[in-house]
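Dear H.,

Thanks for agreeing to be a second pair of eyes. The structure we're designing against is below in token form, covering all 245 positions.
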């Protein structure tokens, strides 16, 4: 029980909730699109069952991700992926990713659509949440992941419109979210087994596992995502530019 009272646990919980809000907004859109043709009496059931199935699938995927991150070099690959996700968050593409979500007037068909679409869209969430859970210690990573996901469900499903409005009004939230992913990427990279274990992969530079090293790596990752994201956003043509071209 004491492990749930540590600052590291609650910092990681906060990170997971923020990641789910930032990267999980699409889930609310997918649920709405998939269930929009259901009869009103079945619509709530479709939303609840689809959300439950998607969350259960995500917990299973994160369990495997936490296990796989113990393999040398996979944390380094995950860190690069998180940097890319953070950059995409700061410089999103201007296309509609939900145009291929088909609605159904059958309950279980709509539930299946929600689960399959969520599976396709969950790679970024899974890697980011697994990275955040790494910082909380080995003993309670899965309870932390499940707790963070459960807390974020109502925020995503019922509070998505409010979250979207807040992001539109305060773009700094998105910027901070992208930098958070960079922070997790940096701390994940320096804790890769290939960097930690002095007896393995002798050609890989080893780093001392101190709070200072993790802090420097986290700050460096956050600044890297911010710099690349701003650079990509400046170079990418605006929607009205492409429309008039």
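And this is the sequence the design step returned. I haven't edited it by hand at all.
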């Amino acid at each position: 029980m004491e492990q749930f009272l540590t600052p590291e646990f609650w910092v990681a919980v906060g990170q997971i909730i923020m990641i789910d809000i930032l990267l999980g907004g699409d889930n609310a859109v997918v649920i709405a699109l998939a269930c929009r043709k259901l009869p009103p009496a079945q619509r709530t059931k479709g939303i609840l069952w689809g959300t439950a199935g998607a969350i259960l699938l995500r917990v299973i995927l994160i369990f495997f991700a936490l296990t796989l991150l113990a393999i040398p070099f996979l944390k380094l690959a995950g860190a690069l992926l998180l940097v890319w996700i953070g950059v995409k968050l700061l410089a999103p593409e201007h296309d509609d990713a939900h145009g291929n979500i088909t609605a159904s007037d059958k309950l279980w068909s709509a539930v299946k659509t929600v689960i399959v679409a969520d599976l396709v869209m969950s790679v970024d969430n899974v890697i980011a949440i697994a990275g955040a859970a790494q910082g909380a210690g080995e003993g309670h990573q899965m309870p932390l992941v499940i707790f963070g996901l459960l807390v974020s469900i109502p925020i995503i499903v019922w509070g998505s419109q409010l979250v979207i409005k807040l992001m539109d009004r305060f773009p700094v939230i998105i910027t901070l979210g992208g930098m958070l992913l960079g922070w997790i990427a940096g701390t994940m990279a320096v804790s890769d087994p290939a960097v930690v274990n002095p007896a393995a992969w002798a050609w890989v530079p080893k780093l001392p596992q101190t709070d200072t090293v993790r802090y420097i790596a986290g700050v460096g990752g956050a600044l890297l995502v911010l710099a690349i994201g701003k650079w990509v956003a400046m170079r990418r043509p605006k929607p009205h530019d492409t429309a008039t071209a």
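Two observations from my side: The chain has a mean pLDDT of 75. The radius of gyration is 19 Å.

Warmly,
E.
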